[in-house]
Amino acid sequence: MNILDIIEKKKNGFPLNQIETDYFVDGYSKGTIPDYQMSALLMAIWFKGMDEFETSNLTLAMVKSGKIIDLSGIHGIKVDKHSSGGVADTVSIPLIALVVANGVPVAKMSGRGLGHTGGTIDKLESIPGFRVEMPEEEFIEIVNRVGGAIISQSEELVIADKKMYALRDVTGTIDSIPLIASSIMSKKIASGNDAIVLDVKVGNGAFMKNLEEAINLAKIMVSIGNYFRKETVAYITDMNQPLGDSVGNSLEIEESINVLKGKGSQRLLEVIKNLGAEMLKLGKKVQTVDEGKIIIEEGIFNGKGLQKFKEIVEAQGGNSAIADDFSLLPQSKFKLPILAKSTGFLSFFDTTGLGKLATFLGAGREMKDDKIDLSVGFTFNKKIGDKIFSKEQIGEIHTNDLSKGNMALEKFKMLYSSGTEQVKSPPLFYAKVSKEGIEILS
Amino acid sequence: MNILDIIEKKKNGFPLNQIETDYFVDGYSKGTIPDYQMSALLMAIWFKGMDEFETSNLTLAMVKSGKIIDLSGIHGIKVDKHSSGGVADTVSIPLIALVVANGVPVAKMSGRGLGHTGGTIDKLESIPGFRVEMPEEEFIEIVNRVGGAIISQSEELVIADKKMYALRDVTGTIDSIPLIASSIMSKKIASGNDAIVLDVKVGNGAFMKNLEEAINLAKIMVSIGNYFRKETVAYITDMNQPLGDSVGNSLEIEESINVLKGKGSQRLLEVIKNLGAEMLKLGKKVQTVDEGKIIIEEGIFNGKGLQKFKEIVEAQGGNSAIADDFSLLPQSKFKLPILAKSTGFLSFFDTTGLGKLATFLGAGREMKDDKIDLSVGFTFNKKIGDKIFSKEQIGEIHTNDLSKGNMALEKFKMLYSSGTEQVKSPPLFYAKVSKEGIEILS
Questions:
Q1: 3-state secondary structure of A442
Q2: Which residues are registered as beta bridge partners of A189?
Q3: Is residue A304 part of a domain?
Q4: How many domains does chain B contain in total?
Q5: Position B121 pLDDT exceeds 90
Q6: Which pLDDT belongs to residue B57?
Q7: Which residues of chain B have a CB within 8 Å of the CB of A4?
């Protein structure tokens, strides 16, 4: 076998087989295939794509490059969840509390934020004492005892993905559906769960800018999941505006708790209800999604979700009193009101720009090793289609640096538009992809 | 400027401008752009191509990466010649003797053979004493005194091409027309001549397998030459069979001398006459190609070409007595007759296979640093369409290793076919490309 033959084969549009795929993933992980050959191959894949079978083979090869977590010590059907990344995408924490509260175990490994998107692990670290790293045995023990735990993804998982992602990042080969799909799914497969719910974001704040691309990505990920006998369901949800009302780490913990108290923003709640219902269904706790949605909603109103959240926080060493006293969370020194620039209907958000604004304030990372400030970010309480009045307060910048805060206020003005005509809110759910096929929802 | 933006731009099909092209060629030559980004860009160029203007810009950027030879000390219009590489492509040496004998100066820098194709410099080195390396001043002095000289291409020329070619060779990006064109033309431009005749080979022994590709390559090279104000004419000639009757280094020197004595093989002579006439025309010695062909032919029959060849050999330190006594050239120990395997009409040559057979015998290189044996190779005196008789001697293997020689005899059998039906000889000239356009010749 020869890497040059594999490059030529892909370049000329022929599918790669499992042996070839194993060869280049293994060789690249071990350093016998150099970066410059891998980047040529990745660019050829960017142009020629990979079919579902090839992408599943690639995922398998990547899974084999690192540790595979054994969750067989956890009782029940363990259901995982993944979001392709968005802004104010405060879904995972309240979702997991509500699913676990209803008897489906969740042993989730999450990532940190990068670029304009936030990460669950960063958000959780704003809870004083909360440990995101622990031995595997303790992780399993907590899931068995409490029902759920969320830890930082092990560095030993899918070694190939770390090297390949770093290379893709500097060679213009990030935006390839088979490479994105295998990167995401290899980590999901290696982390050992039994079923997976995927939230594929689409819109100007997502990596996927159009529905067709998002559906293609969802289709291939569902196909990979099922290939590995892990039932996988994907929702395509909107990211043409921030999902929740808060962007920033401790701010999103506050919003998570608000959701569990029945005070969350409506669109965020809808996503949580649907994904949660799907997780309950995959976990065989309900027969239908509608049934699941009712149970998730009940978990909010009867306080079981909030209670479970507190239990998980305590089990992972965190101070659960934050749930009743937000002042125990990291707080920024300054809170600057965001006033509407004119009267009209909110018509447009530059959602990626808003994500970058949070990074500018210090809530996110441009580079993997950047330090972040857990207390900063912003809130706002209007969505597309809402009427706003000139000078009305529509949000708040949270900052520890007044001049940065004032710059953020100016930037914010450029990141939304309003007009005199009433604009319809964009749909929230576009499609659902499962082994049954594609269901268009909007 | 950022290499990632340049990769993205090309990947998405937008043309690169001069500033971007200079940036990546200069950065790669100097090592500030790493191999893995360059290989991703080269693969994107492989897929998206480059238009004529981009390719000229790339050529210019490459020229600037190394030394540019100043031939202004040579009187007259200096005309260069380049072949895209073939088998038994014994054109340059007799051609240059004949052109120089007719008053057009030729200051040629040539390369060595690689893979299945031979190189003029290797062939010349089989002449005892012949120096292919010398100071630039001496090179210019010889051209002024004798009319012509052929030396090995300076290592300082087009530094970027050496690095880029080595990278393309291991990343599946050799077979890209703009990359081939800029690689060839950058060296032609940097070597300082005033006009260029290109011989683009097409067929199963050439890099270009089909006429359309060959014409595209010729068009872009002619356009680059003219962009640099060096009038350039390209002929597309056949490489579906070896051009001359000899493959190997000292064997091709013998054939070169035979051509100058009026005893060369017909197809080889035709190419020499046409390219020579074109060079005389570019050098303003004749008005038309037909006029030039008559003068080239006269140069053979009146012995002026052979005389000029001897003068050049002497001027470069070689023993010109070889022209009258081939036993002064490196001779192989064994000469094994090649006998026709059956009676019929010769119908097919695996021309690349024949080139590789010469390499197998030791006449060529698989790797750049391989040692070669100047005495070995093979001759054969039949072309497609010729009648051959079973057991008739149609050629001779020249070897210093009997077992290799016997293996070569067996291999040779697999590298040609004959049949009962008379086959037409393939055309020799397919097209001519010049600033006037494309002229189809067959």
A1: coil
A2: none
A3: yes
A4: 3
A5: yes
A6: 97
A7: 170-172
Active-site hit among B126, B176, B183, B191: B183
The residue among A403, A346, A118, A69 whose CA lies nearest residue A246 is A118
Summarised one tens digit per residue, pLDDT across range A27-70 is 999 999 999 999 999 999 999 999 999 999 999 999 999 999 99
List, in order, residues 6 or more apart from A190 with CB less than 8 Å away. A63, A66, A67, A68, A69, A157, A158
Same domain, A155 and A23: no
Residues A84 and A228 in one domain: yes
Q: What is the mean pLDDT of residues A152-170?
A: 93
Clarify whether residues A168 and A190 are in a common domain.
yes
Are B39 and A44 within 8 A, CB to CB?
A: no
Please indicate, yes or no, whether residues A44 and A17 belong to a single structural domain of this protein: yes
Tell me if B42 and A40 make a contact (CB, 8 A cut-off): yes
The verdict on B170 touching A (C-beta cutoff 8 Å) is yes
Residue B183 designated active-site: yes
Task: Give the mutation candidate from B4, B24, B38, B171 for the A interface (greatest A CB count, under 10 A).
Answer: B171
A344 and A401 inside one domain: yes
Q: Do A171 and B37 touch (CB under 8 A)?
A: yes
pLDDT digits (tens, 9 = 90+) for A358-397: 999 999 988 888 899 999 999 999 999 999 999 999 999 9
Give the domain range for residue B346: 330-419
Residue B294's contacts (CB-CB under 8 Å, 6 or more residues apart) are none
- A68 in any annotated domain: no
C-alpha B355/C-alpha B118 separation (Å) is: 8
Whether residues B129 and B169 share a domain: the answer is yes
Alpha-carbon span B16 to A198, nearest angstrom: 39
Q: Strand (E) positions, A96-245?
A: 106-110, 148-152, 195-202, 231-238
**B107 and B180 co-located in one domain:** yes
Eight-state DSSP code of residue B117: B
Which residues of chain A are within 8 Å of residue B165 when distances are taken between CB atoms?
none
Cα–Cα distance, B138 to B120 (Å, whole number): 20
Does any CB of chain A come closer than 8 Å to the CB of residue B24? no
pLDDT 10s digits, A252-310: 999 999 999 999 999 999 999 999 999 999 999 999 999 999 999 999 999 999 999 99
Q: What are phi and psi of A355, to 5 degrees?
A: -60, -40
How confident is the prediction for chain A on average, in pLDDT? 96
Residue B401 lies in a domain: yes
Closest CA to B349 of B319, B314, B385: B385
The shares of helix, strand and coil residues in chain A, as percent rounded to the nearest 5, are: 45, 20, 35
- Concerning whether B168 is annotated as a catalytic residue, the answer is yes
Find the CATH number of the domain harbouring A8. Answer: 1.20.970.10
The CATH number of the domain holding residue A403 is 3.90.1170.30
A261: Cβ contacts below 8 Å, ≥ 6 apart: A300, A306
Is B43–A39 a contact, with Cβ atoms under 8 angstroms apart?
yes
CATH number of residue A201's parent domain: 3.40.1030.10
| ipTM for this model | 0.87
Does A304 lie in the same domain as A178?
Answer: yes
In a domain, A30, yes or no: yes
User: Are B172 and A11 within 8 A, CB to CB?
Assistant: yes
